[in-house]
Please model this.
Amino acid sequence: MTVIILILLVGLSVYTLSSGDLLHGTIALSAFSLLSAILFYLLLAPDVAITEAAVGAGVSTVVFVWAIRATERKDAK
Amino acid sequence: MKGRKYSFSFVLQVVLSLSAVLAVLLPVFLAGNLWPTAARDYLERNGVKESGAKNLVSAIYLGYRAFDTLGETIVLLVAVSGTITIIAHSGISLAKGFAGAGLAKPGSKSQLIARRTELIDVVTGKLGPIVLIFGLYVMLFGHLSPGGGFQGGVVVASGIVFISLGSKTDRSTQLQKAGVLARLEAAGFLFLVFAALAGILGGHGFFGNPFAGTGASAGTYIVALNAIIGLKVGAGIGFMCVAMLGRVD
Model:
């Protein structure tokens, strides 16, 4: 289970870095945070899991989406 | 990236960061005795009894190392102040937030309603209060179950964002007003300083437990600190997000 999540995490982060559409990258980053929250819970660190889920998947996504709305959605080629 | 020669500075950056990672990790793997165990063993034996918190993480960061938490809240205060300053001085380009996409004038109510779907209404508006309740639970039961002031505060901030996104009318609760949140955050920090100083009066030192020796349950001070920190963090991050949504008046 841990190995599956770790592989998914690497895949999601590669997608986040390589995606030209910044909004897709932000959503992938949010999914990354959610998966790492599950990973922290499996590794018996529920405190960190709550923080990661709330900060990573919740608040930082709002901040990123706001930044995209205030600037441009597409990556500069 | 394909077919392009990597520049020298890019290779240098990669090599430097890899060697920095190695310099940190190699001593850990090479050392025979991995970590010092004295503090861990002490906490395992005495932590719950001395601080009154069943959750040892809470016991450490509020019972033994509350000074770190004070620094953490100061960092958050500075971060929120800086964000608000940037938003306020950037003019219309940043403060338009999610509300105006360049079509209607920012913050105009009809534009707000036209851009939302039923899904956003149902999910965020109905889920917001539940998230708020969960955040309060995480905050107030931080000494017994996983969580604590900071975690609960961030969950409360998510709830504020949900309510703020999901409300059809402009105002349905005071929690969406940026001014109220800013005052809550300032009051939270004031309470935290008072709570830190309270121990000095009884001779327990800075961030000492002022209830020690009064017969109150040992966890009382940790619950109070968790509530104050949660109030401060929730109001601060909620204020930042509400300001980014373009609702600063």
Notes: Residues 220-244 of chain B form the longest helix (25 residues). Residues 157 and 238 of chain B are 4 Å apart (CA to CA). DSSP finds ten helices and no strands in chain B. Confidence is low (pLDDT under 50) at residues 99-114 of chain B.
